[in-house]
Design goal:
By secondary structure, this protein is α+β, with helices and mostly antiparallel strands. 29% of the residues lie in helices and 23% in strands. Strands 1, 4, 5, 6, 7, 8, 9, 10 and 11 form a nine-stranded mixed sheet that branches. Strands 12, 13, 14, 15, 16, 17, 25, 26 and 29 form a nine-stranded mixed sheet that branches. Bound molecules: guanosine-5'-triphosphate, sulfopyruvate and manganese (II) ion (MN).
């Protein structure tokens, strides 16, 4: 399908290694995809859902030991350990290859190898980049079709260039003890083996668009971030774009697709989604920062998604969507998850594949759907998809937001003093862990810029790169904020209503960017006057509640600073001096 000699040479090498029975190029045609769907249905790898209620939708279950990203088995391999940094698992490039080659040797014998050319970013955009994924999984092919611009167009975009990411995936025998998700940023290469789950195997997503791309951005002067992109359209038609970085399962998809509360809707405000997980950002000709969404679909968390919490996400899943590890309602031949509605189906197969009755669950945790069950939905299904979605130049960013799950400490919202302080705020992020990765849930850990699992190089250098970008942007830099939707009361209930009502906070953020509203200067940044958060139409939330949500406990913040200090110490001399200075200044302000 291509005359590109770099592609052909690499493909020959990989075929010789994994020895597939057959090699099939994915051209992206509907006929080829339909045949693959049929094959997956015939083998039971996928199940077809109710054609009337969920046309074109498929259900898939992964192995019980393979339901989330595996951070402990994810590596950044470079020649020198310092270049991967203290946060990433590291092994020297050739040592890792020596370890993995025997696992790959002949692993596709008797299987078909699919060759998937794909483009991250709009076809024709100067900011887009091409990858090729080799895989023995039809699930991967069908998901990559939704998540990326896959097929012939991607090869056209590549031309005869050597600048493509070489991805090799085999589900092998899905052995946990031999599972590896390995990035070689210095070689534009990804090797993934023994998983068949989402982020571990859809190599365009976290492996390329964040781990490899963050390193490319460092080298080439742009940024790859774990950020949603949304536009807020004012009644006069002006649209302002906001990007936001929250750790996995902390609310990006929800915020990206929010429905404005009545108070704004009636005035004519609208919200548009450009992206829900990843932003690639470049400095434009006018000196501002522009963002594109490299993806073409949403790999979203199913549990908690319902018509009230996220109408637009739910609508996006009504056709041509793949559901992974949700429950299967046998009477309707539809899907169900916790939080969809209050009526779990009676005649149901839980996510593990076991048929259960009524409300008995056998799966650990007592849930019908896995907490990290997901939908893979085409972006074009989204009712609020931005008309700029395919704009090759991206959209200009007015504000950047960081946030996480913090039961106490972080206030509802605050603004950094300036860009450098904003980089400090992002670097100091912490959040409670979620089901998006294997391991304990609900433990507070430091997660700088929500990139801890996704930064493909030394995070000290990454902080330095952020500071550099700010210098280049100067006074055109987006303003930087931090939010927290997850403060809880003494009974552990969320105090802030969240979801659509988060727009009330975004509106304050935009007012600040335009210099329209004052704020209170505190040791950690500018905090709103509680009266400036519009609460019209909210029954349970008063200005007094908001005052509480905005309160800052200096003791807790000093403890937090100690955590930041510990994190910073890991980077040694790779930590930019500016950040050490920011931390010292913040501590001094808190101690006053
Ligand atoms: P990844 O796809 O893993 O990167 O996750 P994400 O950041 O896109 O998170 P998502 O929007 O899917 O939300 C994850 C979970 O957080 C869901 O269960 C939501 O219901 C919940 N959530 C999202 N926004 C809010 C909010 O404003 N308040 C509360 N309390 N929960 C929220
Ligand atoms: C995340 O974990 O941040 C995700 C899902 O968006 S995955 O693609 O599995 O990484
Ligand atoms: Mn994510």
């Amino acid at each position: 399908m291509t005359e590109n000699k770099h592609v052909k040479q690499w493909l020959d090498e990989m075929v010789e290694l994994v020895k597939p029975a057959k090699v099939v190029w994915i051209d992206g045609s509907e006929a080829q995809l339909a045949a693959l769907r049929d094959e997956a249905l015939a083998t039971g790898e996928m199940e077809a859902l109710n054609e009337e209620k969920l046309p074109g939708c498929l259900l898939h279950r992964t192995a019980e030991n393979d339901v989330a990203r595996v951070e402990g088995r994810t590596y950044i391999c470079t020649k020198n350990k310092e270049d991967a940094g203290p946060i990433n698992n590291w092994m020297e490039t050739s040592a890792m290859k020596a370890k993995l080659l025997p696992l790959y040797d002949g692993v596709m014998q008797g299987r078909t190898m699919y060759v998937i050319p794909y483009c991250m970013g709009p076809i024709g955009s100067p900011f887009s980049k091409v990858g090729i994924e080799l895989t023995d999984s039809i699930y991967v092919v069908l998901n990559m079709d939704i998540m990326t611009r896959m097929g012939k167009d991607a090869l056209t975009q590549l031309g005869d260039s050597n600048d493509f990411v070489r991805g090799l995936h085999s589900k092998a025998n899905v052995e946990e003890e031999n599972r590896y998700i390995v990035q070689f940023p210095e070689e534009n290469t990804i090797w993934s083996i023994n998983s068949a789950y989402g982020g571990n195997v859809l190599l365009g997503k976290k492996c390329f668009a964040l781990r490899i791309a963050s390193y490319q951005g460092f080298k080439e002067g742009w940024m790859a971030e774990h950020m949603l992109i949304l536009g807020i359209e004012a009644p006069n038609g002006e649209v302002n774009y906001i990007t936001a970085a929250f750790p996995s399962a902390c609310g990006k998809t929800n915020l990206a697709m929010l429905i404005p509360p009545e108070v704004y809707a009636k005035q004519g405000y609208k919200v548009w989604t450009v992206g829900d997980d990843i932003a690639w950002m470049h400095i434009g000709d006018d000196g501002r920062l522009y963002a594109i969404n490299p993806e073409a679909g949403f790999f979203g968390v199913a549990p908690g998604t319902n018509a009230k919490s996220n109408f637009n996400a739910l609508e996006s899943t009504k056709k041509n969507t793949i559901f992974t590890n949700v429950a299967h309602d046998l009477d309707q031949n539809t899907v169900w998850w916790e939080g969809l509605d209050k009526n779990p189906p009676e005649n149901v197969v839980e996510w593990t594949g076991k048929k259960v009755n009524g409300k008995e669950y056998t799966a650990e945790g007592g849930k019908l759907a896995h907490p990290n069950s997901r939908f893979t939905a085409p972006a074009i299904n989204c009712p609020c998809l931005s008309k700029e979605f395919n704009n090759p130049n991206g959209v200009p960013v007015t504000a950047m937001v960081f946030g996480g799950r913090r039961a106490k400490t972080a206030p509802l919202v605050y603004q950094s003093f300036d860009w450098a302080h904003g980089v400090f705020v992002g670097s100091a992020m912490a959040s409670e862990t979620t089901a998006a990765a294997t391991g304990a849930v609900g433990v507070v850990r430091r997660d700088p810029m929500a990139m801890r699992p996704f930064c493909g190089y030394n995070m000290g250098d990454y902080f330095g790169h952020w500071l550099e970008m700010g210098k280049k942007l100067g006074d055109k830099a987006p303003r930087i904020f931090n939010v927290n939707w997850f403060r809880t009361d003494d009974e552990g209930h969320f105090i802030w209503p969240g979801f659509g009502d988060n727009m009330r906070v975004l509106m304050w953020i935009l007012s600040r960017c335009k210099g329209e509203v004052d704020a209170v200067e505190t040791p950690i940044g500018y905090v709103p006057n509680a009266e400036d958060i519009n609460l019209e139409g909210l029954d349970d939330v008063t200005t007094e509640t908001v005052r509480g949500l905005l309160s800052i406990d200096k003791e807790l913040w000093l403890e937090d600073a100690a955590g930041v200090e510990e994190l910073y110490a890991m980077f040694g001399d790779r930590l930019p001096e500016e950040l050490a200075k920011q931390l010292a200044e913040q501590k001094a302000r808190l101690a006053k």
